[in-house]
Amino acid sequence: MQPKNSTFSDRQAASVAAKKALLEKFKPKPTVQAETLIDHEAERRERAEAVRAQREEERQAKLKAREEAAAAAEQARIEALAAAEQARLDAELSVDAQKRAERKARKKEVKEAAKAKKDTRGVSSKPGGPKEERVVDPFEEHRRYIQSLERGRERRRA
Question: In a 10 Å sphere around its CB, with 0-12 CB exposed, 13-18 middle and 19+ buried, how is residue 62 labelled?
Answer without folding.
Answer: exposed
